[in-house]
Amino acid sequence: MEIWYHGHSCVQLTHEGHSLIIDPFISGNRLATTKPEDVKAEYVLLTHAHADHILDTVPIAKSNNATVIATFELATYMSWQGLNTFAMNIGGRTSIGFAEIEMIQAFHSSGIVLEEEKKIIYGGMPGGYVIKWDGLTILHSGDTALFSDMKLIGQRHKIDLAFLPIGDVFTMGPDDAALAAEWLCAKAVVPLHFNTFPPIVQDADRFTAGLRDKGIQSRALQPGEKLTL
Fold this sequence. Notes:
Elements: E1 2-7, E2 10-15, E3 18-22, E4 43-45, H1 51-54, H2 57-64, E5 67-71, H3 72-80, E6 84-88, E7 93-95, E8 100-105, E9 111-114, E10 119-122, E11 127-133, E12 136-140, H4 150-156, E13 161-165, H5 174-184, E14 188-192, H6 204-213, E15 217-218, E16 226-228
Parallel strand pairs: 3-4, 4-5, 5-6, 12-13, 13-14, 14-15
Antiparallel strand pairs: 1-2, 1-16, 2-3, 7-8, 8-11, 9-10, 11-12
Helix pairs in contact: 4-5, 5-6
């Protein structure tokens, strides 16, 4: 499986001719090396409704005739933008043919801010995903704080790779993310949600080195970088 990191929390998974992308925030990210029009994906998975996770959903979904998977409220909003959608909620599972997807909880907030109108549209509960694909189990936590039920998630799923935020301020920071990696019993971890904006600048290499000292494989990816799982 090829994993392509587009920066911030945006990850694309590709395997045997199929592809999905999670939290597409590319055009608004000064560190991104990819353009939204270059993305080819059948599904767009959204963890929550903040702009730095959904910004490029419409152009990517429309150009690929892709299906957007999100919580009921966010999926409904995306359907109003003329997109194909599939609504889920926390604890639900579904099959997309080549992979099985479960939506897991996250502790964060979720809303679409309309600056000109000074309104906020409720985006449903935030979440994350456990994706099981060709014998591999991949977790994308979405934006989240540390919470003790990560232990339960780790007990129920043998996680080959976990994507976890480390930026702090808006999500858990490096110390809590390191504990989350242990609680999830993840074999490997890739950090997300750091360095995009000044408040979330972190030393990702220090974070990954700390995990490796604990026997957890870890690697920080640069925007545009790929790895094979």
